[in-house]
Each structure stands twice: as structure tokens, then as C-alpha cells.
Design goal:
- By secondary structure, this protein is of the alpha+beta class.
- The strands form two sheets. A five-stranded antiparallel β-sheet has the order 2-1-5-4-3. A five-stranded mixed β-sheet has the order 6-7-8-10-9, covered by helices on one side.
- The radius of gyration is 26 Å and the shape is globular.
Length: about 375
């Protein structure tokens, strides 16, 4: 019998009667991932393929098992699985002994026994063959493109936060430091009233520091998103954007119900709206922009359109999308969505994103299969 492995903090135990779904039972090599991309269960066939006992894989991520140079590909693949992608992909895994195994993986959305969202990934070993330096499969090219896009997006976000901390927060902290030292010097020479006034000024500057930190924190992840949901957060952001850009009228129409929007998709949709409105303000020359989020049939659809100057999509395609549109497209691609851009010179721009979602009936049928 395998020894009990302590699970990472925040990872609930499965109950004694909770078992793997039929998709991952029997002799199938499969693992069951939660929404943090951590393995909750693994079949004996999957574990033995890379030299582990099933319980030894619990709490690990696919990226932890990836061979050198494949970690980013594993992270991107796990993100796509989390957002419902069901296409097959290959990963090179490194076993306990160091042996490398190329596996082909296929995912299926499958709730965890406690009702939490999750996915089952079935895999099979493939013959590891040497490829020429120039030989790549379409899947490799797509995976690398997505991985590179995610890394660039992450790096751009880090640079933005680092710049704001350096330019906005650090000078205030340095100012407070000097003010406190000045107050200490005034106290030392017997001028408490003067020291008191300087300390009052330092307190006011500290309030400015806190305000800047709250702003940066809100930019990283608005608390409203967790407290009230995506709809109220988008309405709040659009109102604030309109206040910051008085020449621009922002119409926000949200009819999608919160329960229809996957939790893991809410932050991505918010970021797409942020980036799109920023593009409109900087480049479109528009005075009106509409933001809509609706559910039609089995799709969640996001639309952002403006009445600005537009541009020639053929010319932009030749030169490559701008950084803002690239970031938007990468987010949509990485979450399994479809991206569409409609624009022409002097005719405004419309950005569309859509994500296919299983209906309640489809989810029940999948769980019963």
C-alpha cells in the first residue's frame, strides 16, 4: 500500500468513496487535474509510465514533470485544458529515473467528485524519434507561438508594475524617509512643534503611498472581481474610464449571467477590455465605444466597437498586429477562444471574442458518459 502523501496547502482531500471517473478508470493512463493545474489523482498506468507510484504524483503539475525545455509548453497546455480545449498535444516528460518519455495527451472536462471544476487527461506513450533541426509539427509551432505570446504578455505586465513602483511609489517612500529624519533632527535640537508639523506632512505622504499601492493592486486584480463578479467590475471600470477620458463616451452592456462565466475566464475578459479601451483612447480618435458581454446559445461573446478612424487590416496583417492587439489575441488564444477583428479606414473598429461553453445538459451528459 502506498504511503499517504501530504497534499499542498489548500488542496482538499478526496473522500474515501470518491473515485476517478469512467474516462480515467481501468487500464487507461490518465491524470485528473483541478483548476490550479495540480494532479488530484493518477491511474497506475499513467504513473508507471514515468516511474512513479500514483500517490507520488498528487499535488504536482504537468510542468513539474516536463523534461528540460518543455516546462513552458506544459504550462500553456495545462492552461488550454483548464479553459476547455480538447485537442490532442504532445509533451516530453522526465521520469523519476531521468528517462524521457514522449506522451500524447487528450483532455476532457470532468468535474471533481466534490463538484469542483476539473479535467481528465488521458495519455499514451509515443515513440521518441530524433527530429531534424528544421522539422516541426503544426502542433509544435502553435504551442510555441502561444507560449511565446504568454511570456511576452507576462514580461510586459512585470515591466509595467516595476515602472510604477519605481516612478510613483519609490519617490514617495524616499520623501517620507527624509521627512522623518528631519523631524528627528528637530526633536534633537529641542523644536518639538516643528518636528510635529514635519511628521504630519510625512503622514500625509504615507497616505499617498497607500493610495498608489491600492491603485497598483487594483490594476493587478480588482477586488470587485472577487467580491461582486465580472459584470459589476466591467461597469465600474467603464465608468472610471469615461471619467478619465471625458471626450469618450463608454456604453457598457452586460447580459451574461455570472453563473454562465467560468471563474478562470473572468480576469482574462477584464484584461481584454482594459487593453482594448486603452487602444481606443490612444489610437482610435473615437468619441464613442461600446462594450458588450452576452451569452448566445453555447457561446460567451465579448464585443468592443468604436467609431474612430479605423485602419487597413491588410496592411496591419503584413506589418504584424500592434502590441495591444497582440496581447489581446494571445489571451483569447490561450483561453481557447476565437478572435475576430473588423475594421476599415474611417469606419471604426470592432473587436470580437467568443468562447464555446457546454450547456448544462451537455455537462450532465458528459459526466454520465
Amino acid at each position: 500500500m502506498d504511503a499517504k502523501v501530504e497534499l499542498p496547502a489548500g488542496l482538499p482531500e478526496l473522500g474515501a468513496n470518491e473515485t476517478m471517473p469512467p474516462f480515467a478508470s481501468g487500464g487507461v493512463a490518465a491524470v485528473w487535474l483541478d483548476q490550479q493545474d495540480r494532479i488530484r489523482e493518477a491511474t497506475a498506468s499513467a504513473a508507471s509510465m514515468i516511474g512513479y507510484e500514483p500517490r507520488a504524483l498528487v499535488g504536482r503539475q504537468l510542468a513539474d514533470l516536463a523534461a528540460e525545455g518543455w516546462r513552458t509548453a506544459a504550462e500553456v497546455a495545462a492552461a488550454r485544458v483548464r479553459f476547455g480545449a480538447t485537442d490532442s498535444f504532445e509533451l516530453l516528460l522526465k521520469g523519476r529515473s531521468g528517462r524521457q518519455t514522449l506522451v500524447e495527451m487528450t483532455a476532457q472536462t470532468q468535474p471533481l467528485p466534490n463538484g469542483e471544476a476539473g479535467s481528465v487527461i488521458a495519455w499514451s506513450e509515443r515513440r521518441l524519434r530524433k527530429r531534424s533541426r528544421t522539422e516541426t509539427s503544426p502542433g509544435d509551432v502553435e504551442l510555441r507561438r502561444l507560449a511565446y505570446g504568454l511570456l511576452r504578455t507576462q514580461e510586459a505586465e512585470r515591466m509595467r508594475v516595476a515602472g510604477e513602483l519605481h516612478d510613483d511609489v519609490a519617490p514617495l517612500v524616499v520623501m517620507v524617509k527624509y521627512m522623518i529624519e528631519d523631524a528627528q533632527a528637530r526633536l534633537a535640537r529641542g523644536a518639538p512643534d516643528e518636528a510635529f508639523e514635519v511628521m504630519n506632512g510625512a503622514t500625509a505622504r504615507l497616505r499617498d503611498v497607500l493610495a498608489e499601492l491600492r491603485r497598483i493592486s487594483t490594476d493587478l486584480r480588482p477586488r470587485l472581481l472577487d467580491d461582486l463578479g465580472l459584470g459589476p467590475t466591467l461597469h465600474w471600470y467603464c465608468r472610471g474610464f469615461e471619467d478619465a477620458c471625458p471626450s469618450l463616451t463608454v456604453q457598457c452592456r452586460i447580459s451574461a449571467e455570472e453563473r454562465d462565466i467560468p471563474e478562470e475566464l473572468k480576469l482574462e475578459v477584464f484584461r481584454i477590455v482594459q487593453e482594448a479601451l486603452s487602444n481606443v483612447a490612444q489610437h482610435a480618435g473615437a468619441d464613442r465605444v461600446n462594450v458588450s458581454l452576452v451569452r448566445l446559445g453555447g457561446e460567451l461573446r465579448l464585443g468592443i466597437d468604436d467609431n474612430g478612424i479605423g485602419f487597413d487590416p491588410a496592411r496591419v496583417a503584413e506589418q504584424g498586429l500592434g502590441l495591444g492587439l497582440q496581447a489581446i489575441r494571445k489571451r483569447i488564444d490561450a483561453t481557447g477562444g476565437a478572435f475576430a477583428l473588423e475594421t476599415a479606414p474611417h469606419r471604426g473598429t470592432r473587436l470580437n471574442a467568443s468562447w464555446k461553453q457546454a450547456s448544462s445538459a451537455d455537462s450532465l451528459a458528459s459526466a454520465a458518459a
